[in-house]
Amino acid sequence: MGVYSSSGALQVKVNEAGTGRYAADGSVRITIVSGSTYTGLYAADGSMNLVLEDGALYHPCGAVRGVMVYSGDRGLHTPSGAFFIDGYDQSFSNLETEDGFNILLENGKFLLLE
Question: What's 77's DSSP letter?
Answer without folding.
Answer: B
